[in-house]
Amino acid sequence: MSAMQGIVIEGTGGVWQVRTPDGTMLPSALAGRLKQEERDFVKLAVGDHVTVEPEERGQGWRITAIAPRKSVLARREPGGRYGERVLAANVDQVCVVFAVANPEPHVRMIDRFLVVCEANDLEPHVVLNKVDLVADAAMIDALAAPYEKAGYPVHRTSVKRGIGLDELRAVLHGKVTAVAGPSGAGKSSLLNTLHPGVALRTAEISQSVNKGRHTTVGAKLIPLPDGDEGYLVDTPGLREIAMWGLPAESLDQCFREFRPYLGECRFQDCHHEVEPQCAVQQAVESGKVDRGRYESYLKLYAELRASERPR
Ligand SMILES: Nc1nc2c(ncn2[C@@H]2O[C@H](COP(=O)(O)OP(=O)(O)OP(=O)(O)O)[C@@H](O)[C@H]2O)c(=O)[nH]1
Ligand SMILES: [Zn+2]
Question: Is the CB of 132 under 6 A from ligand 1?
Answer without folding.
Answer: yes
